Target: Chemosensory protein 2
Amino acid sequence: MKSILYLVLTVVVTCSAQQQYYNNRYDNLNADSIVQNERVLLAYYKCVMDKGPCTKDGKNFKRVLPETLSTACARCSPKQKGLVRTLLLGIRVKSEPRFNELLDKYDPDRSNRDDLYKFLVTGN
Model:
């Protein structure tokens, strides 16, 4: 009986310790093509900033964006980290004011800014 209880406890601890990644639905998204297309990038930006309409994909990005930014992509798979990093750096290169506005909206108290900048530099 003790061994069964120990086994169950081990499985529960192991499962809860494993990181749950975001859904992999957008893992094959071509982030570079979005960044290179000013119109598409601006449309996504306006969506997540509540300044324009959202596509279904835009709504999904907007839903996970607060957690993604506040945790520096902690629940992102390695592939997702690359995509998020490409998109954020693309926004930053195209328009530093928009990039700062985005960060101010989703991290207004700047509590995670250092971790987020580290993520953008290192990818981790």
Q: What stands out?
A: The chain is about 70% helix and 0% strand. The radius of gyration is 18 Å. Residues 78-94 form the longest helix (17 residues).
